[in-house]
Amino acid sequence: MMAELIKKGRERLIEITGTEPSTIRIPMKKDTFEWYLETSQDLQEALLEGGSQIETHKLRPPPVHWMGQWDWIVRPKKEKNPIREAITAFTDAGKKSRMAAITWQEEGVWKQQLLHAAPEDSLQTMELLAVIWALMEVTGPLNVVTDSLYVAGVVDRIEEAFTREVKNKRLFELLMQLKKATRMRINAYAVIHIRSHKWEEGLGEGNARADKLVSIVQETPLAKHALAKEAHSIFHQNAKGLSKEFKIPLTEAKMLVWACPICSHHNGGQGLGLRVNPRELQSNELWQMDVTHIARFSRLKYVHVSINTYNKFIWATPQVREKAIHVEQHLLSCFAVLGVSKRIKTDNGPAYTSKKIAQFLQTWGVDHIKRIPHSPTRQAIIKRAH
What we know:
CATH superfamily of the largest domain: Ribonuclease H-like superfamily/Ribonuclease H
Domain RNase H type-1: 83-219
CATH architecture of the largest domain: 2-Layer Sandwich
EC number: 2.7.7.49
Radius of gyration: 39 Å
Mean pLDDT: 79
InterPro entries: Integrase-like_N, Integrase_cat-core, Integrase_Zn-bd_dom_N, RNaseH-like_sf, RNaseH_domain, RNaseH_sf
Number of strands: 12
Enzyme class: transferase
GO molecular function, one term: RNA-directed DNA polymerase activity
Oligomer: single chain
């Protein structure tokens, strides 16, 4: 606008006098004028073509003095590029948590601010709310980093834009607050768009911190009794195992087992495996494995069964035979579901004592235990599970 006024003035003066103006006075401060001269090609052409002397100070004529009072020429506070040695604030918003977060680092210490969303807020307006807070509360030179392309675009244009009322009242309210925040700022600011969740170094570190702040979901911890009940419904541990694992009284653990329609029929209501093969120190410490025959399965009547002695979890697969290759197939299925056990206990059947199974277990790093040569006993847990 100023470049057009200067060009029109020069053209009019040439029409009247036939010469270029000797002096052009610009109603602004010198540093502001220098900034405009560096960034506006139109202004450069309007001023530098005629060879006129440029002066920057207030003019005496009343119209120009009136225009100066109304700040009709204002240098924008927004910078196109990130500001060096400025505070960098990272903003984010969570749709589920209904919160917006701002985090920044001062003197090597990370600080943060959480903002609760209004009922009518959307994810985008929450992101915008976080940026407004940063612009208003962080008074020094500021870089604002957001992963919302929409918010970055709004902040980039709001300072020099004319804002008209929109149907979304909440959005219009925030746009007016944003415009006010940019006008009230004394120091410069820059807005930076960053793609979310790409890395956790540099700018990504602050972005990840902001994301974690709005992703936190506070869950009420379950009571030990409820945890034990849920675990038993899946793994069917015995009463003694429940008591030890979840630190509940043995009598309470027995009540849970008695209430289970599956376990209440075993060992007088105490569950599977009471006082047989004490539990190991951790899961997948020791498995027992065997084969049972179910005639009604027809061709797949050889059911290979493995049980984790830690939690009594059972996994069975029907096979066409009970040779070494079928044992391998069963174990691969077990490894996919339960993980790899440290030790496996079996009887002394031909498939389990074969070199093929010995080599297979050695490859997987599993110790093979065969109890009492030529005897199928000492497999109490797996036999009872049959």
